[in-house]
Amino acid sequence: MKSLRSLALGVAALAFSASSVFAVSETFSTPGSVAGWTVFANGAQDVLANVGEALSLGGNDYSFFYAIAAAEASGGIFTGDYSGYGQLSLDVNLSGGSVVDRLSVSLANFTTGHEWTYEFSFVTGAVNSLVAPLGAAGAGWTQQSGPSADFSELLGSVEEFSVLFSYDGTPSPASGFAATLDNVTLTAIPEPSAAPALAGLLIAGLVALRRRRA
Hints:
Elements: H1 2-20, E1 24-26, E2 38-41, E3 45-50, E4 55-60, E5 64-70, E6 85-94, E7 102-109, E8 114-120, E9 126-133, E10 141-145, H2 151-155, E11 160-166, E12 177-188, H3 194-213
Antiparallel strand pairs: 1-12, 2-5, 3-4, 4-12, 5-11, 6-9, 6-12, 7-8, 7-11, 8-10
């Protein structure tokens, strides 16, 4: 039993390392720090603060509002080569009275002029745990600007990552919105060498278990 327990712990450790190696995340855990993020909006009130270990955002009388992590933000962890990552995830909590038509994320390279967006379904008054896949080129992503190019070309050199809240109606809503952003994470694609090792441990565990039962 002890050997099986050790094997299980080894498998769990390998699975964790395979899924988390090179992953980067921003949890806004330093009180008061906005971790290099900025906002860009056409609203009368733009809010950017770290409240309760989450990025607090808000705007009034707006049609678009960007929360931006540019090359210098968070030590640059949300810019650079995305080709080794499988997904981009984030938690967004929109207050119940928020007026938002669209919630999306954007990846851009302004040197080449390319920008792609991924739109989410969401609800207000609750935490939305959102995931944008990066592994399949162009899957769910829409090119907004720049010459025609495969999505994978952008992933090779991302200069800006942003979260976009927008309202398409007229006039812009006076009530605007309030939201928090947290747990922004890029999850790496597991290294190929880890998969055979993990499979081998699982097979060995099953064999050992069958022998004990026999």
